[in-house]
């Protein structure tokens, strides 16, 4: 069976990340968000343990049936969503001072969102190689963006450095440079697209493209 990855067109990728920059960010709160967000880090530790176990079960389900069990899909998507909200609040973006909710579900009035379109069918051949072989080029990119293997809510590497610059700008000017925010969002969007692909949530290969800004790019007319 062919293991050729499904390429994504210029239209919206099945995994969608968006966020609105808080216009009134605190100058100093970012210095202690590591402590304030500690309850989330503890919960996410358990959630990611369950995520890895359930992903193993999803792998075999896809291999046998060509379908991702919907309850596992909903849970795993929720774990990634929760992780993104914590990263957005803390050191993955510093884009809001509003405390993240303790829920796997999307919260419409929270400024950060992440979702994946449920696939009706997945390739039973691609599932054997997508998460390690096909994704290797993206893993090399992520190694640079995140500074190695790290949990999604505690970015390092280039993202961590840019977020540090944003924090320093907040401290001295009270403003988050918009161009810096757009770049940080684009990098996080790349990370979460690859996470969705590696987690078997989609067969659509992540684009090697930096889509900057708080909102997903509009498909071409």
From TrEMBL:
InterPro entries: DUF4389. It holds the Pfam family DUF4389. Keywords: Membrane, Transmembrane, Transmembrane helix. The chain crosses the membrane at residues 38-64, 131-149, 155-173. It comes from the Bacteria. This is DUF4389 domain-containing protein. It comes from Streptomyces flavofungini.
């Amino acid at each position: 069976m062919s293991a050729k990855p499904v390429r994504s067109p210029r239209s919206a990728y099945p995994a969608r990340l968006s966020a609105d920059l808080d216009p009134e960010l605190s100058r100093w709160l970012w210095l202690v968000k590591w402590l304030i967000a500690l309850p989330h880090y503890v919960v996410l530790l358990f959630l990611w343990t369950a995520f890895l176990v359930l992903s193993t079960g999803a792998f075999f389900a896809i291999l046998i049936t060509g379908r991702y069990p919907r309850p596992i899909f909903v849970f795993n998507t929720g774990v990634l969503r929760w992780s993104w909200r914590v990263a957005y609040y803390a050191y993955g973006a510093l884009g809001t001072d509003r405390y993240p909710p303790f829920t796997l579900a999307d919260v419409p009035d929270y400024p950060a969102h992440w979702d994946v379109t449920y696939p009706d069918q997945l390739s039973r051949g691609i599932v054997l190689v997508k998460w390690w072989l096909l994704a290797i080029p993206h893993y090399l990119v992520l190694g640079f963006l995140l500074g190695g293997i790290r949990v999604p809510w505690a970015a390092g590497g280039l993202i961590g450095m840019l977020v540090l610059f944003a924090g320093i700008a907040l401290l001295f000017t009270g403003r988050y440079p918009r161009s810096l925010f757009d770049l940080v969002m684009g990098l996080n969007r790349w990370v979460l697209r690859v996470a969705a692909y590696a987690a078997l949530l989609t067969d659509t290969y992540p684009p090697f493209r930096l889509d900057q800004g708080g909102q997903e790019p509009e498909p071409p007319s």
